[in-house]
Every structure is written in C-alpha cells, then in structure tokens.
Write a structure and sequence with these properties.
By secondary structure, the protein is of the alpha+beta class. It has 5 helices and 12 strands. The strands form 2 sheets. Strands 1-2-3-7-6-5-4 form a 7-stranded mixed beta sheet, sandwiched between helices. A 5-stranded antiparallel beta sheet has the order 11-10-9-8-12. Adenosine-5'-triphosphate (ATP) binds next to β6 and β7. This is biotin--[biotin carboxyl-carrier protein] ligase.
C-alpha cells in the first residue's frame, strides 16, 4: 500500500471487508507464520472487542479498524507496555492532523474528553518466550450516529472538525509513529526515551483523577507515568500509588 512508508510496520497489509475482529483474524494469520509488522485492516468487525470483554462497535467504513502483529525478542513481562506505545503513536498521528488530542491512560485516545480510539493488546507465548503480540486499534474517523449510551463518551475526527478524512492516510501516519516509538521503546524496554513525549500528550497530568478498580475507587492527583508505564497517583496525604494498566479505569474530575 502506497500510503505506508515504513521499514516494517504495516509493510504487509491484509485487507478484509468483514471479519469477526481484526485481533482474532491476525491471531490466525500469526499461526500461519505471518511476520513482525504485518497489519490486518477491516471495513467492518462483527465482533469487535475492548478490554474486559466489552464490545467495540463501529459501522462499516466509518473508522480505522486494524491490528498489527509483533514478534518482539524481549521478555513477555514487557508486552503490555506496548499498549501505551500504540496510544502514543495514535495520539501523535491525530496531533499531526491538527487536533488537540490527549491520551487517556492506559488505552484510550480522546478529543475533548471523548474517546476517538481504543486499543486492545493480546499476547501468546511459547513456553517462556513471546510467540506474538497483537495490538488492535479502533479509531473513529468519519460521521455516524453513536448509540445513545455512547453519545457523551465517544466522538470521531469528523465530528470534532466537520471534515472527512482518508482512512489510509491515518493508517500510514499511525504506522510511521508506531515504528519510531517502538524502536525507541525496545532500546531500553521501558519508557525512558518516550516519557517526555508521552507526558506532553497525557490527559489529566497534575490534575485530580478518580481511579476505579471494580467496586473500589479512590481520588488523587495524576503525576504521569514512571518508566515502567505505571500511572502515579498522589493521594491527599502525599503518598504516591503506582497503578498498573490492565486492572483499572482512570477518570478526570
Ligand atoms: P473506560 O472508558 O471505561 O476506561 P475502557 O478503556 O476499558 O473503558 P475499552 O474496553 O477499551 O474501554 O473499550 C470498550 C468500551 O468502549 C465499551 O464499553 C464502549 O463503551 C466503548 N466503545 C465501543 N465502541 C466505541 C467506539 N466506536 N468509540 C468509542 N467508544 C466505544
């Protein structure tokens, strides 16, 4: 595809009109030997997924729905950090289109506090080694009527700007930024090289937030992420709690 000018990210692209989910599809391709950087793109997902088995919904042709397959050499414990690397890449791509975008740690990208992108990372191991990492990305691009329960939580690029976008251009921009960020990430297997850029785009930095973990919740001030990608939340008594991605949701207050 002519839109993607990268060394490996999205060099091979599979395209489908309709799949169950791009993550499930590329998982099957990975078992047939698809290589690092292979990208699966679909016009429609009949069973798009979010975290905790939640649904990701988008009408046909409305959005970017894609999953990249990675075969990192590093230890499995680092794989979940790639969610944050992809969040950064999507935010940088949207930033490059001229939006005031922010990252809602750990896995969403937002415009005016409404979600325009969700990210779902999954991993398979061979013994103690990584077999594959899949990073699924849904970006709301063009106009559609969101279901009632999503209307105050979701938006799209077109809804915010009144303009339609070429989805292939967006895919190309995300792949460009992801490849650069990933290469910086694997130098240290942490966020040392990406911290400053991440904090530039992070929502609620030094602002009050509520951390929700099932029925439990607490409030504090977000102090951004540490080099492991954990969110630092300072409570009123000055103690700082580290929150790891995967378990929680964080809301601005
Ligand atoms: P939270 O916003 O509560 O932190 P989350 O980050 O865990 O949620 P995900 O699991 O990544 O969310 O995504 C699933 C959720 O996203 C669904 O529960 C639904 O509310 C919402 N959603 C589904 N489709 C879309 C879409 N196209 N655009 C925006 N939000 C969507």
């Amino acid at each position: 595809s002519q839109a993607i000018k990268t060394k490996w990210a999205g060099k091979t692209v599979y395209f489908a009109e309709k799949v169950d989910s791009t993550n499930s599809w590329i998982k099957r391709l990975s078992k047939e030997g698809a290589e690092h950087g292979t990208l699966a793109v679909a016009e429609f997902q009949s069973a798009g997924r979010g975290r905790f088995d939640r649904k990701w919904e988008a009408p046909e042709g409305s959005s970017v729905m894609m999953t990249i397959l990675l075969r990192p050499e590093f230890e499995p414990q680092y794989a979940s950090m790639l969610t944050l690397v992809m969040g950064l890449a999507v935010a940088q791509a949207v930033d490059e289109l001229g939006f005031k975008v922010s990252i809602k740690w750990p896995n969403d990208v937002v415009l005016s506090r409404k979600k325009i992108c969700g990210i779902l990372t999954e991993m398979g191991t061979n013994g103690t080694k990584i077999g594959y990492v899949l990073i699924g990305v849904g970006i709301n691009v063009n106009l559609w009527e969101f279901p009632e329960e999503m209307q105050d939580k979701a938006t799209s690029l077109a809804m915010e700007s009144g303009q339609e976008y070429d989805r292939n251009q967006i895919i190309g921009l995300v792949m460009k930024h992801f490849e650069e960020d990933y290469e910086r990430f694997i130098q240290t297997c942490d966020f040392e090289n990406l911290l400053e850029e991440y904090h530039r785009i992070l929502a609620n930095l030094n602002q009050p937030v509520r951390v929700l973990n099932g029925a439990d919740s607490f409030e504090g001030v977000s102090r951004g992420i540490d080099t492991k990608g954990e969110l630092l939340v300072e409570k009123a008594d000055g103690t700082v709690t580290k929150i790891s991605a995967g378990e929680v949701s964080v809301r601005g207050l």
